[in-house]
Amino acid sequence: MVLEETREQLAKAIGATGAEITFTGGGTEANNWALKGSLLPQQPSSKHIIVSAIEHPSVLKSAEFLSQMGTAVTYLKPDSNGVIHPRAVEEAIRENTVMVSVQYVNNETGVVQPIEAIGEVCRKNEVVFHCDAVQALNKLPIDLQTLPVDLMSFSAHKIHGPKGVGALYIRRRIRLEPMLNGGGQEAARRAGTENIAGIAGFGEALKQSEVHDRAQRTATLQEFFEQEIKHIFPRAVIVGKNAVRSPYISQIAFPGLNNQNLLIQLDLAGIAVSVGSACSSGSIQSSHVLRAMQLPDEIVHSALRFSFSYKTSKNQIKQVLERMGKILRNK
Q1: Of 206, 236, 252, which residue sits at a domain end?
Q2: Which of 1, 49, 57, 307 is most buried, taking the most CB atoms under 10 A from its CB?
């Protein structure tokens, strides 16, 4: 059966069991459910949660929703490299803290967060740890047999699967309030007929193998791209350069230029980039992530996000660089 085969396939990929996997309508639903499903049964007005200020909007908006219900929310800011430090998490924990939510890979900067150390802090303080791993699945190592993570969110389309399907890992000891009520699908945790076609596509995407080799190859392309950008535009700034980063995301600022104008010019040149996350491709809003990192306005207002894939070729990178060179050298 496709449903159970894919469930076991995902479980194997992340070091979990099939019973710990529930399919959702995407990463946004998984993030909403992780936060709201944990808090709503617990008299949320008496509880406290911690989220990083650089999370995906689906986490930040869920925290805002809980705040309106009386939950105390602490938003942790990163350092100037975009890193959330475990010590900051520990210092923010209170007696009534019930959850911490910090993503594995930032969806704008590509900075990899120290989730193992943060998870150890949560485990020591008996606090549930949720991690949005949408940008990490099939790209970076995930082994939930060793990682101290209780809830982890995934999305199929970030690994070349179909849109509209995702999953939430729920460690056996964790109990979540269902967000959808109705039939007994997904072990009575998520009512509604499963998206079998989408889940089948998720399974096909999961069959991609050799994660480590692909990441190394993509890192080589990322380094080539960033070095060439610096040659074309010497003032360019690689955001998070001094942190551990995913090879699949580069956020680059072009001080002195307006990123909204660049966005339009690059779009006309056939280059798809974004000001913030890929979800907001074409957006003209400034990045809440860069604001949280307290970077100068000249960085915030000139930064663009570039995405790479294991399918990206060096020839494609060269074509992008050629087109960008024509635009940037005229600035």
Answers
A1: 206
A2: 49
